[in-house]
Write a structure and sequence with these properties.
- It comes from Paracoccus pantotrophus (Thiosphaera pantotropha).
- One of its GO terms (cellular component) is cytoplasm.
- The protein is α/β, with parallel strands linked by helices.
- The protein contains eleven helices and 26 strands.
- It folds into three domains: 175 residues, FAD/NAD(P)-binding domain (3-Layer(bba) Sandwich), CATH 3.50.50; 124 residues, FAD/NAD(P)-binding domain; 77 residues, Enolase-like, domain 1, CATH 3.30.390.30.
- The strands form seven sheets. It has a five-stranded parallel sheet.
- α1 packs parallel to α9.
- The longest helix is centred in the last third of the chain and has 15 residues.
Amino acid sequence: MPHVVVIGAGQAGAALAARLRALKFQGEITVIGDEPAPPYQRPPLSKAYLLGEMEEERLWLRSADFWAENRITLKLGTPVTAIDPAARTVTVGEEVLAYDELALTTGSVPRRLPAEMGGALGGVHTVRTLADIDAIRAGFVPGRRLVVIGGGYIGLEAAAVARKLGLEVTVIEMAPRILQRVAAPETALYFRKLHAGHGAAIIEGEGVDRILGEGHVAGVRLKDGRVLPADFVIAGVGVVPATALAEAAGIALENGIRTDARGRTSAANVWAAGDCASFPLDGVQIRLESVGNAVDQAELVAANIMGADKDYVPKPWFWSDQYDCKLQIAGLNAGYDRVVARSGESEAVSIWYYAGDRLLAVDAMNDPRAFMVGKRLIEAGRTADPRLVADAATDLKALLR
């Protein structure tokens, strides 16, 4: 009986295994995860779960009964230590499992601050896993002082939760502005004002010299010599694809685990999907770090394991919740040369990205209609006249006709 082994029990791994069964795969399926928890959602970790508004069981992607009823074996809390593509085996603890097809859905891991910068001190946290958030939650007490290093979406989400819970918060961004890598200045300005309005301090264009303390965080010293008192620190300085297993097995890497358009890696019978995998788009190997991509790509790989032979066509979308703002992003803004801002109803704002006359992406802040219209246009390969977009009197739905 054929055996599919999935390394990585996150969103992509769970989606791949579930889709195999939905496609009537009759063989064995084993999903292996480093963490002891069953496959769970990550986005709510830095939002509802950190706020205490969601119980752990509500994070789970499937019930325990689902895995048993669908004959999907979960091996949790024990990492894979080796892959042998020639022998078609993986080593898990003391056990060696043979596979017919192997899927790598290992995700990504947070960048950590170097020990010489004080990154190993107690009270220095990252935001990635259930265990990370459980460790942070105990310190989220009104009046305590949090320094967030990194002004990307993860850092800003953690800052927003901390302020809602009454902590004193300072965000440090080494780049000239927050969201430098992922958003236009107009979007960054919106979120800078949002955080300032809720009492969070943001320091831009300034690096961290080191984290101070004896055994535990006491403060953060900036490059300019300022010292910020801190009871704890969250390092939100990005993630990197988890490629160590693939690299050790001789599987080709390029901005992650390199795959072709159908999810195949350089090793026979080995596939990859999700945050760890790069795939070809317009001649470049790209990675998309999002739930939507993890699910869509993993489900395509499942279909291709079953013989579908289909190429992956991404439909990128992302979201972030901060205070009372829901940001929804459609498309990819890479290569934009201008943006158009649009004011919607109430306090809704959207930023539309163009390369020449081509619509690339939309950032929609509390504006689900702009998100929906922009997403449909981008997925259809259509554009929208920037003059009409900028005119608040324009009915956005008319752009779809």
